[in-house]
Amino acid sequence: MSQNTAIVPNNQLVKGNHDFASITKLISDIPQERTPLWWYIAFGISNIVMAVMLAMIAWLIWEGVGVWGLNNPVGWAWDITNFVWWVGIGHAGTLISAILFLFRQGWRTAINRFAESMTIFAVMCAGLFPAIHVGRIWAIYWIFPLPNSMQLWPNFNSPLLWDVFAVFTYLIVSTLFWYVGLIPDLATMRDKVKGTISRLLYGTFALGWTGGNRQWQNYEKSYMILAGLSTPLVLSVHTIVSFDFAVSIIPGWHTTIFPPYFVAGAVFSGFAMVLSLMIITRKLYKLEDIMTVDHIEKMNIIILVTGTIVGFAYAIEFFIAWYGGVEYEKFAFVNRAFGPYAWAYWIMITCNVVSPQFFWVKKFRRNVALTFILSIVINIGMWFERFVIVVTSLAQDFLPSSWGYFSPTYVDVLTYIGTFGLFFTFFLLFLRFLPMVAISEVKGVLPQANPAYYRSNNGKSKTTE
Amino acid sequence: MEKERHQTYWRSLNELAQNKEYKKFAEREFPENASELKDGVSRRNFLQIMGASVALAGLASCRKPIQKILPYTYQPEHVVPGVPLYYASAMPFRGSLTGIVVETHEGRPTKIEGNDLHPESNGRTNSLQQAAILDLYDQDRSRNIRQNGSDADWDDFVDFCNNHFADTGRSIAFISEANSSPTLERLRNEALNRFVNARWVTYETYNDESVYSGIELAFGQRLRPLYHFDKARVTLSLNDDFMQESVNNVAYIGDFAKSKDIVSPDGEPSRLYVAESNYSLTGSNADHRLRIRTTEIPQLVYALAARLSDRVSGLESWSGYTNAFSDHRWISVLVEELVSHGGEAIVTAGSEHDAPVHATVAAINQALGNIGETVDYLDVPGMPGSDQNEMFRQLASDMAAGNVDTVIMIGTNPVYTAPADLDFSNALAQVSTSIHLSTHYDETSRESTWHVNRAHFLETWGDGHSYSGTQSVIQPMIQPLFDGKNELEFLHAIVSGEKVSGHSLVRQTWQERYPDRFESIWNEVLHDGLVKESHYTSVETSFASDFSAAVLDFLNISADHGPDDIELVLKPDPKLHDGRFANNGWLQELPDPMTKITWDNVALISPNTAERIGVPSSRRFGEFKQPVIRITTEAGQQSEIVAWVLPGHADNSITVYTGYGRQQVGRVADQVGVNTYNLRSSDHRLVRPSVEVETAGRTYEVASTQDHHSLEGRPHVQEADLVDYREHPTFAQDAVYVPGTFGGEREHPISLFSDKQFPDHEPQWGMTIDLNSCIGCGVCTIACQAENNIPVIGKREVRRGREMHWIRTDRYFSGDENGNPKVMHQPVPCMHCDNAPCEQVCPVVATTTSVDGLNQMTYNRCIGTRYCANNCPYKVRRFNYFNYTKEYLTTGDDPEIIQMAMNPDVTVRFRGVMEKCTYCVQRISRAKIDTKNNTGNSIKPPDGTVKTACQQACPANAIAFGDISDENSKVSAEKRKDRNYVMLEELNIRPRTSYLAKIRNPNLEV
Questions:
Q1: Does the structure show a pLDDT above 90 at A107?
Q2: Topology given in CATH for the domain delimited by B145-207+384-528
Q3: What is the pLDDT of residues A246-264, one digit of tens each?
Q4: Which of B149, B182, B265, B927 has CB atoms 3.0–4.6 Å from B941's, for a disulfide?
Q5: In CATH terms, is domain B567-704 a member of 3.40.50.720?
């Protein structure tokens, strides 16, 4: 080797002087400890907020969809905005679990459990909206292809139906993936916990996992298969969600760029949400060794990339609107930026295009506080992106006589806020009762997991000094 | 206005019903302070009050109607359950009858159509006629007779009449609404003969007295003008909104549309000039329109007469007269036009103008030789010989002076409508006995000694003449729902003290009139709805001997207004008229043809005047709150009303509609809008030359159904000037670039698939809407609402943009907003696309195309995702955001009443489902069944047998409907016309409804 070259060592994924045992202890102790006070407070608030949501939904179902601010041109507004936003957030989980797994990105192990759980809860929040937004919720099962004596089937041409299939598939596969990943850790918990009931519960869900060689072999294979299955789903779910708009004929919706643009946006917002949650959690549970600043930086890079794609998509939409020469489309896009909803558009641009630019600078990428703030900002921006797409296109379409303006009612606002209650209720339960980091997988990326590790260190564990 | 700011809302009807205060309110019958129910126009409140007043009626009237239910042991003749029966009748309004045909289902009337045989109807109707059916089922109609506010019955009243009117020397005044009934005239004469000190005043808020007086001035006779717009080549309307305000507007619109009709580029449509202050419906159909203050119209018409006097004889009295308008560019143009079209021109002026204007107009018509050609002056027997406005003023002062002992008011509501300076309420208080016949326990009823509840015209016998004199009998369709009496029974009880049915009274009159073959004539009249060939006689007119002196007199009166004064013009509301239809939800919710405002009256001003007053000259998109202005008259009367900028309105002029701001009349009418009658005075009946205007410093929410008024250069509404059309006849279809249509013949846009135009099935339904005929009145909306059981949803829901109308009329302005913009009207129902975007996106196949080409809605299957409405480029789908129908039809104690108005052939829709125009599928089905019954195998009804509700009602005959697979059908012929175009053709959704472009015929000299 010449003097001019040097080997840049990979950053260690797990900081601190951890070995297998300390990792196990670090994670598995959390559910066994006394429940911290902040958890009760947070859980209480989440429950109250969720109760508000349930009340709003009950009111909605009792009175009719009219309790929302919808009107004649604007048949969808916050409901579908929230749906797409939550589904988008739900994208990070599978991307981290499946795609990064297939690409052998070891750093994913620190956050994958976390992100997958977030995904499931976010998809639950998302799925709520299409269910409650219909006029007659008691007939909603008609969208499923259930055999019936009238031989009535759903309309397989409708993107809304594709949506139902896509989101359900995604929810099922994500849940399976999450659960399969949990099995070794559930077994660990079973072995660690003291209470009989908790041992019984953990044991039941651990499915008799003993950690034998053969089990590991099967496990790895099934995990790989599920990762393979999930990977197209990451792309398909939001592609199909985007079809709800792209397949229609409304200017501003009828756009071929939507599938890639939606997927990028989804990853963008999903990573931002993972960051928001992770930055708080690692602080509260003192997991800075596992969820390191290196992780944050890597995620910020993905945010920067996807954010740039999203920004590029905004520009392309404008270009195509001009280049395509369709008068209505041209109007739709100019109107977004300068029409009655310009405020929403510029919030979107500021949050989604301007704010990620900070991450070109390494110092900012590694700044935890700034990352936290920007992750929130990005999710606000992504909510507005969906709002801009859904509402501005509908509000002012072909016939100027029918143009309208949408203003939300308190029910719209509280239902949306309420879904955070639902989300955090589940998320806090997850934090409390399940190992929030994939113990077995993190162990897999420890230096000690390298078969050559002990050989190279003369059988001693490596020290950092 | 002042009271309605503290609003009380109940969350539900139940809560309302359990509310103690409410119960107290309900039990108080017609409470003194009904303002406890604030904001009567929100949807919720509308329904609350609906429930409220129904409960009120139930709680208040202890007398339950006797109900008997009996089966048909023997089926009555003609009655087949499920098959409607049609009866001819007539609707009285402002002293004229219009022939109608009423559809009844098992004895209940459900729909009014025009009578084909009737010359003033020609099978067509206007909004008021369409909406009359809802007035019949108005639960707020007065249900009993009251003496000093407490219940009485008909026997009590007749006993009272026998006692009270035994003294025939009493000083009695009859105040009657205008009525053309010969029976009423007979009874009137009997009354005036019997009571020696009696007088009879005909009182209508809006009347043609000044027209008659003007004609009297010119020809020495009070005559009724009848215009034949179909024969006119040039029409000049001076502030005369004959399409909206005339009682004869159904005929006038039809005639006008005929004269405008243009089949091919060789056609010669007529030309309409309008000079007006408000931007009226007539003005929006003009080829040339002049914005001019109402107070300047007299000068304009005198200047015109003066210039015409050089060219035609008969106007010598004006010759040499000049004023500020003498050099106006319009004058020379009009002189050329009118002179070159002598005998085929019409000059007309609005009835708010004083007699001199009408005298001049009559003289111009006479001089041009129009009389007997395009204008007839009819001798109307029974027409009062003097100006009734003046008579009413005298009566009011006599009443106030205590010189009148008994006042009998027939159908009018003077306490509400009388000019403010007469203080009619006070005058009435000076009268010892007042008797009021009215449908509602209204403002006047509450201040009268006796109130007699009036029957609806669909409930009782009556008769009368149409505007041109055609005689008809009004047949009842149903027993009086609330035991009401009509004006004939009422008056007869007063005159004779006997209880005689309207049937006998009318028959007696007709027997006197047709003593020979009475029964057969009677039956024929009942069957046809009219006496054929009955007509007022038109009079050969000649100038009165003292006319030139009179002309010199009025030409010498100088204008009573300065150039910068802001004038105020009161107009009848296009929907509520003088307020008598205020409790009709259909009319309240019908968008005003020009402003598209529902549930309110506003002060219309031009953008420049807005700036002058200090309110914004344009509205921000999506802003419902508009500034309120305070109008103060010289007499110090004030009114605060929301200002609404109407482009094209004359500067320094305010137009205000009346009929709103009613108190304690009914759940629909109460608290809607502002009562503007206090701005009226007996000197300035409808026009005040100068008022003070200032901003009131607050805003008010207005529910308009159209927020954006420009087409943004889009080609949805096609219109061209006649010369351009001749140069390029297919301009409308060429306005849109459609791939696949360049070069060669026009075809359907290119498709990836080789699909057929139609499935193998006949008929294939389609529609055309001729924008050249359509005047934008909006009767199609009401007709559709009546036919298709469309609920009324209230102001708040309309404000939120949730109006339910299946066919709307879009109105666009084009041109200079601050100047004189053009207006285009476009009715938009569902287009029934062959390649419907709504169908493709519905996840549950709730909307599909039928074999005969209808885009069908399956309500049962709809789950309400609203995706179809989102994807509809025409935005014609309507969603039941709440359970509108349930609230409309089942709240209150006797919802059976409003339910009776429903068409049994049309499903009522539940909340959460989408609905839209069906092309009146129920009518199609009935025609198919009839055809199959008649022919044995065909289900293809002959052309013209299926008429959609909108088509049938349209007075302009703008809508054609039929089988487009049949080359010979009317609709196919329409679609072959070069003006035919498809809105948004480039989307390749292939709508079945197409439009025919509008052609304007401007004078190139202007």
A1: no
A2: Rossmann fold (3.40.50)
A3: 999 999 899 889 999 898 9
A4: B927
A5: no
Contacts of B749 in chain A (CB under 8 A): none
Q: For residue B18, what pLDDT is reported?
A: 46
Q: Confirm whether A43 is domain-assigned.
A: yes
- When mean pLDDT is compared across B64-68, B259-263, B314-318, B859-863, the lowest value belongs to B64-68
Would the pLDDT of B272 be above 60? yes
For residue A4 the two structure tokens come to 């001019």
Q: What is the mean pLDDT of chain B?
A: 86
Q: Let me know if the fold of B224-379 is the same as that of B567-704.
A: no
Residue of A nearest to B622 (CA): A405
Cβ <8 Å between A401 and B802: no
Query: Which domain, by its residues, includes A253?
Result: 35-135+154-176+232-444
Instruction: Give residue-wise pLDDT tens across range A401-440.
Output: 999 899 999 999 999 999 999 999 999 999 888 988 888 8
pTM summary value: 0.88
For the ranges A143-152, B8-17, B694-703, B845-854, the lowest mean pLDDT is seen at B8-17
Residue A148 lies in a domain: no
Which of A253, A399, A410, A412 is the best residue to mutate to test the B interface, defined by the most B CB atoms within 10 Å of its own CB? A399
Q: Is B719-747+762-1000 in CATH node 3.30.70.20?
A: yes
DSSP states of B722-766 as a string?
HHHHHH-TTHHHHTS--TT-SSSS--PPP-SS---SS-S-S--EE
The reported pLDDT for the residue numbered A464 is 44
The letter for the amino acid at B408 is: I
Q: Kindly list the domain boundaries of chain B, sorted by start residue.
A: 3-60, 145-207+384-528, 224-379, 567-704, 719-747+762-1000
CATH number of this structure's domain B224-379: 3.40.228.10
Dmax (CA) of chain B = 90
Distance, in angstroms, between B807 CA and closest chain A CA?
12
What pLDDT does residue B823 have? 92
Which long-range contacts link B731-740 to residues 24+ away (Cβ below 8 Å)? Answer: B731/B997, B732/B978, B732/B979, B732/B980, B732/B981, B732/B995, B732/B996, B732/B997, B733/B978, B733/B980, B733/B981, B733/B982, B733/B985, B735/B981, B736/B981, B736/B984, B736/B985, B736/B986, B737/B986, B738/B985, B738/B986, B738/B988, B739/B986
- Distance between A273 CA and the closest CA of chain B, angstroms: 29
Residues of A in contact with B710 (CB under 8 A): 400
Across the interface, do B803 and A331 touch by the CB < 8 Å criterion? Answer: no
Count structural domains, chain A: 1
Contact B276, B594 (CB under 8 A): no
Q: What is the CATH number of the domain that holds A325?
A: 1.20.1630.10
Give the residue-averaged pLDDT of A151-164. Answer: 90
